[in-house]
Every structure is written in C-alpha cells, then in structure tokens.
Specification:
Elements: H1 13-39, H2 41-48, H3 53-87, H4 95-106, E1 110-113, E2 125-128, H5 130-178, H6 187-208, E3 214-216, E4 226-228, H7 231-288, E5 289-290, H8 302-316, H9 320-348, H10 350-371, H11 378-391, E6 393-394, E7 396-397, H12 398-416, H13 423-441, E8 445-446
Helix pairs in contact: 1-3, 1-4, 2-5, 3-4, 3-5, 5-6, 5-7, 6-7, 7-8, 7-9, 8-9, 10-11, 10-12, 11-12, 11-13
Amino acid sequence: MAVSGPTGPALSREEADRALARLGAEHEAVETSLLALQDHAGRRLLEGAELTGATRSRWEATEPLITLLWTYFDAYTAALNQARELRARRRWPTQGELADLTELLRGPCVTLPDTGAPTGPAVLSERLSLQELVARMNGWYARALDVVVTADAVWSALPARIDLLSAELARTRSLAHSVGVRPGEHPAGDDLERITRELTALRAEVISDPLSFWSGASPSSAPGGGRPDTERYDRAARALEDVRREIEAVLAVRQDAEQRLMRLRDVLSRADRTLTEARQARGEVLAKIAASVVPAVTGPPTALHEQLAAAADYRRHAQWHRLSPLLDSLERRAEDELLRARESLTAVTAPLAVRAELRGRLDAYKAKAARHGMAEDPLLVERYDAARRMLWSAPCDLLAAEQAVLRYQRATAEVLVPQQPDHADHRADHRTDHRTDRRADHRGEPS
C-alpha cells in the first residue's frame, strides 16, 4: 500500500491534478490489497476454524481490524470523490477552489467516529488527513496480513506432511503386526503407539493454533525471514524411520530364518564333533606321552543347544521379533564355540604333534646318512635305534626322545663332516648313550 506525500502550501492547478492522480493510483492499490486480503485462503480458514492458544488471541484482535480497514477505505473513497467533484467544476479553478481542494487533499478533512480500535485514548470522533488515514490503514493491514499469511503458510506446510507420515505409519503398523511386533510385546510396537499419539496431537494443534508453529520473522516481511516450525514433525519422522528399519530387519529374519537355523545347527554340530575328538585325543595323549601336561576338555555347549531349540520354537510360532535378536546372539556365540573347540583340540594334540615332528626329523637324518653311504655306520645305527625306541614306545618321554634325536643329528654331522674329537670323550659319550638306550628299552611297548 502506498503512502501519500507530505502536506504543503496551497496547491496550484498542476499540483492538484498530480495529487489527485497520485491519490487515485493509491486508492486502486489499497482496494486491490483489501480485496486480496478478503479473498485470502488463510483468512477464510481462520474465520471457520476452532482456534486456540496464540492464534485465537491474535485473530480475535485482528478480525475487527479487517472490518475497520473497509470502514476507513470507504471514508477515504468518499473524500477522494469529493475532491474529484470539486476539481471537475471548471477547467481553470479559482483560488478559492484551489484552497478548498488543498484542504481536502492535505488537511484533516475526514471525520471518523470512535471505532474502538487500539489507536489511542477513546474519543467520540476524530479528524484525519488522507495521509494519516492511509498510514493508519497501512499499519492495520500489515498486522492483519501477518496473521493471515502466517496461518496459511503453516496450514499449507504441516497438515499435508503429517497426513503423509500418518499414512506411512499405518503401513508400518500393518507390517509390524504381520511379524508379531505389537504394543506390550516388542519395544518397536510401543514406539509405533507413541508416534501415533504424537501425530494425532500434532495435527490437532497445528489446525487449531497454527501461529504457535511459526519460527522467525513474519512471512509478509523480507523473503526467508521465517518458516514453519517442523521440529516435532521431524522428530516423529525420524522415530518412525528407526522403527521401520527395525521391522524390516525382523522381516528379513522371517525370510531367511530356516537357513540361519540350519547353519547354526551345522556350526554347533562341528563344535560338538571337535570337542569329542579332543576328548578322545586327550586320552590317547595321556596313554602315549609321559610327563606332559594335557589341558582338560570341556563338555558340549548345552546352553547353546537349549537356545537353539528355543529359536526353532519361535520360528514355528512366528514370533519373529523374539527370533531376530536370539539368532544374532546365537550366531556369534556358535562361532566362538567352534573356535574354542578347535583351539582345545590343538592344545590337546600338541604333544602328539611334537612326537610326530621328532619322528620325521629322525627319519630325515637317517635318509640323509643313507644318501652318503653312511647308514650302516655303527655309531649312527646305535644312536638311531636308541632314538627310535624312545619315539615308538608308550608312554613316550618327549624330553628324553628329543635329546636322543639331537644326539643322532650330531653324530650324523660328525660322520658326514669328519672331525678330530678327543677319543676318550668319544668313548665316554658312547658308554653314556648306551646306558640311556638300555633304560629306554624297558619303558614300555611300541605305540
């Protein structure tokens, strides 16, 4: 809405014509603005809505201003028509007519009764110039437009989005029920109920009190000055997305539950077989290896088998929301159990592996001596037989057997690379080895 120019001295004919033209254009602009406000969708919605809170109090103060705007506009129209009639009397108005015209265009020519508007102390009537009249109308128009446009902006943005989210919520709730996710039975079901209540309350509040959901400056001010406050809506949307992902995870469990259960049975079966093999190997080690610490082997994972049976029961009764976390836990623990069984078997059979390594090393050096034509050397034959008796006797003393293998290795090296050893020491070593071999002959039967 335009603002009339400042008042001044008596107008000339040209000045009066220009002032009338300016006031005419201003009149058209004011009328256009008031008609747009009258037909604004936000104003019609405000008139028909059951308002509460800040919106109700502001609209109760704003609605009378719209009526006053039309009252003031009618007075403005009447004063402008009076000025136009005065100017139309003659082509060259007299000085008296110009003075009267100046008074109409610039003076307090409009008398208005007390309207009860919040413009100052209560009076029976007041006289305003056209400039003052338009300035007051501009203020009231801005106040009314702020309320109307703000309410319309919120109503245009939020209810439709809430309805779309509510439709998504209904689809999610239907999917949740299909996989057994219900209130009181699963946290996601409780979350869906809470989101439903929140969206219902949010929509009712947005419809009845849209102004409380506006953040920032009025939308009728500079562009970008404010926006609808969607914090509660966004929070509900994020919560629904979290629930939807959880339900999709449960749905995925329903689709591949049988395969996962089969894999679990296979893993636990392998763990059981490995533990059985470890227990059998432990008995063998205790019988065949002397002076060796063999770790104990635990029993089968009874608790995991019980939980696996519970998981199968959940699947039979379509309790997917219970099956999902149980399968995740069982898969981790079953793999851990299989790893533990394998480690137990490795630890139990370690002495047998050491004996096998010593046997292989002894035979390898014998083959090396044979390649050099020294297999029948008396010293090598004697030391080979002593080491072999220890390694193929039960129970086997690994420490003594290892020393015997080392002596055979050293003897092989001495034979293949001739040295000049002290003959007395050599004979003493030979007698010592001979006594050790005799003791080994009486330790047990061949394994």
